[in-house]
Specification:
mainly alpha; elongated
């Protein structure tokens, strides 16, 4: 179950990053920045969840 959630979060983060690049090129910089920050938060959450524990 958690593997599926991690996969969906990664796909959503990649989609948000791609969307941010597309929107940045069209000129709406504020929305693009917010999408990029949301993608970074998703990637940070995945990194935190995947840190090995004892």
């Amino acid at each position: 179950m958690s593997d599926t959630i991690m996969s969906l979060l990664m796909l959503a983060g990649v989609a948000l990053t791609g969307g941010a690049i597309y929107i940045f090129r069209t000129g709406d910089r504020k929305r693009a920045l917010l999408m990029f920050v949301a993608a970074l938060v998703m990637f940070a959450n995945i990194a935190i969840w995947l840190v090995p524990t004892k």
